[in-house]
Specification:
14 helices; about 35% helix; flat; about 400 residues; alpha/beta; Ubiquitin-like (UB roll); 3 domains; 7-stranded mixed beta sheet; 5-stranded mixed beta sheet
Length: about 400
Amino acid sequence: MEIGLVGKPNVGKSTFFNAATEGHAQIANYPFTTIEANRGVAFVRSRCPHLDFNVQCNPRHSPCVNGTRLIPVEVLDVAGLVPDAHKGKGLGNKFLDDLRQASALIHIVDASGSTDFEGNPLPPGSHDPLEDIKFLEDEIVYWIKGLLEKDWQRIAKQAHIQGKKLERLLAEKLAGLGIGEAQILKALKDVGDMNPMEWREEELLRFSRRIREVSKPILIAANKADMATDEQLERLKSAEGLLVVPTCAEAELALKRASGAGLIEYTPGEDHFRVLKPESLTEVQKKALKKIEDILSRFGSTGVQDAIEAAVFRLLKRIVVYPVEDEHHLTDHDGRVLPDAFLMPEGSTAKDLAYKVHTDLGEKFIRAIDAREHRVIGADHPLKDGDIIKIVAGR
């Protein structure tokens, strides 16, 4: 799973990226600091099942910290997007191409309204972040439309004359964007019953917009929230159809670095931190930490961890499932207890999990066993968050 960080230049994307992943993307107060896409790993939190079984887990790729499982998610920070990017303006073509495989997008906006469309600094309150949200969504929609319209008549005619499913032909066309047949079919139904060969630009644009909504859902990270007024934030949060999380990426990054230096004790996503070495702090550091305390008091957290988790659990509707080979000891073949934590779409079945673990398990699936309830479940059994499942497959 890949989460793309998007937005115009100079709104704090790279700061958010570094805060979420502890990466080292270049940060500066001018447009187009990011040229090449930065990749890193963030984590989402889930209660570890070892707490329910009084055992000690031995995770492979998802560490457990005090009973909280940290499940990795890939994060991509791309070049800033400016109006008419789909026409190649700025670094538009590269930006859009970098986002092809993203499952969801976190749109970093300057909630304080202190940057113009191209990322140039302005006095706070001078720019409307809702305009940024609209222009970015429109750029992605027009990009998708541009990919479709070149071959639209040919594909629509082929589906009509040869009796092929239009959604299947379009899935082949859009395979590089990570857009599946089911998503395309849903978008087609939403457009209506009009013959696709008769679609005008209006229908194609509406279809492209729906494709974006179902395949690249967007969460709004209202960054620089500490510089925004309550009225500015409320206007964003109350806008129709938006999922908005106030964030202070600069504060989160400062906390991560102070924690790494051993100056404070801090857990990402928490509403507090503890100073470990007050005598080691300079006056500048004390002043900065006091400012961050005020931010945590106002918002409950810096919002960075909340935004990543909202994208995974609310936008993409993922659940956490733990596959094991021994349902009695909750181990794999090497004896590791609860070794893996998989993020699965809501509604996934036991057979879907088998395919996720290994193609051979999916193809040779016989049954599964729910380790919590000690019962056999079938291929179509829907999984729940926190399930521990053993897959039984043929040889």
